[in-house]
Amino acid sequence: MLNKHKKYLVVFLFFIQCPFFLNAATSNALDLASNAQIKLKPKKTESLFSKSHKKMSLFLGLSGYSELSSQTKKTAQNSNSLIGFAGQWQSTKKLQESFNWKAEGQVFYATSEEHIYFDIPDLYSSYKAKFFEISAGRKKTKWSLEDDIWQRGLWAPRNFYNLTQPMSQSLTGFYLDIQTKSPVFLTAFVSPFFIPDLGIDFEEKDGSFISKNPNFKPPGSSVALVGDNQIDLKYRLINSAPSDIIYNPSFALKAGARWKAFNMSLSGAIKPMNQIPLVAPIVSLKNTVSLLANVTPEVVYHTLAAADFEAEASNSLSVGGAVTYDQPHLKSQPATTLQKNVDTTWIYTGFLKYKFNQIGGEFLTSYTHLEGGDLPDIGRLASRTDSRFPIRYQYNRALKLKWNQNLTLGKPFQLSADWNYDFIQKTTVSLWQASVRLSRQAVLSLSYSHIALLSNNFSDPREMYWHAYEDTDALDLRLSYAF
């Protein structure tokens, strides 16, 4: 994924260490992100804060990965070990109003990649009065039910380590939340800053992009000029200045109403796309028969709108739906430039959720239908059937079945399953997770993900997202210790 260049991780580190966030970042403010969180009894403190709550843990992990190539019929295997820190810290000072700040997330080091990954969805301070709250920083906000269920990353950015488990983040800026005694509520967001999706580390070497993370898939190394005649295509990454990425303003607004058994909302935003599109001016290399693509990240704005509703038929059953509109504002480029292309997109989503309160389980099923989406690249050397750039929409017309279950079999267990089938890509994507609390401090977690292609044929970029990963299995084992 070329738009996940490590340069943006440096930008992210720079930003969260600015003076406004310094106190939070230096106060062990990271999240316990294992699937079974240890709930420790909050300790009373005699500081200025009347309430203080924190959970912290260290974790060790081991990841295994295998991929079966449909072309070579060979299996590639890879492994990686992880060491990290996760935690949550929240404090409140109460006078006539409330001053709060919260930080949660995780940071871990992947030894085989020699790379640090961050997952910090909450890092903010706030002032809460009777009918409103003002916050500054990164704050979890559910802008869209569709984006929350399918993790598309249209509203809030994501971080990636494992492809099937995107880590949803938050928009960074200033929030105003208004909630009166009436059912009506309002959330407004504005920011002079922009932090895109962050993810897999890679580097440029000898005209190619390479990575030690098996989830990384480089673009093709040749291009067709006339008929089936192929010519080598080399790549060079042109890094943008950090200021060109960071200093791009955003605005978002959400208004709605909540009743006892029904709620609805309308959301809108004008902001940069979290998945940074790439452009690649192509030139001829002297004294060779190769072409050179100068790959350049480009911040592109888009207009987002969403309408959601959710109704509770009983204490256990709820149904809902969402409509999302996504309009990218792509910039025109010369014909010699290879450019990512995305159409105006409508996404229709419905879901049903059932809670098994007596046994501690929850079932969710959802269907999403996308119109528009990814198109073939633009440019003289662009293919008519595929794209050399990362695909923006990972699901087109897809069904989701999801189950979460809490059990006690001598020790507390937590089980979950997430199965997805895309009817356009003819691909199943599944994630199975289990965790057990070994003691008050220790939690052992195991996750297994599988990508299965039922067809290797595609004629459109909308069929390409999961096809790049062939038949893939990933296993992750993690031991967390809370203190």
SSE topology sketch:
Elements lengths: L5 H11 L5 H4 L25 E18 L6 E20 L3 E13 L4 E14 L3 E7 L6 H6 L7 E2 L7 E2 L3 E8 L4 E8 L11 E3 L2 E3 L11 E3 L5 E8 L4 H5 L3 E9 L3 E11 L5 E7 L6 E7 L3 E12 L4 E12 L8 E6 L2 E12 L4 E11 L2 E5 L18 E13 L1 E12 L4 E11 L4 E12 L17 E12 L1
Q: Number of helical runs?
A: 4
Q: Uncertain spans, ≥5 residues at pLDDT below 50?
A: 1-50
Q: What's the CATH superfamily, by name? A: Porin
Task: Work out the helicity level.
Answer: under 10%
Cα end-to-end separation: 36 Å
Number of DSSP E strands:
28
CATH architecture: Beta Barrel
**CATH fold title:** Porin
Biggest β-sheet, characterized?
18 strands, antiparallel, barrel
CATH first level: which class? Mainly Beta
3D shape: globular
What's the number of domains? 1
What does the oligomeric state look like here?
A: single chain
Q: Which percent band covers the strand fraction?
A: over 45%
Summed over residues and divided by their number, the pLDDT gives a mean of 80
State the secondary-structure class. Answer: mainly beta
Rounded to the nearest angstrom, the radius of gyration is 23 Å
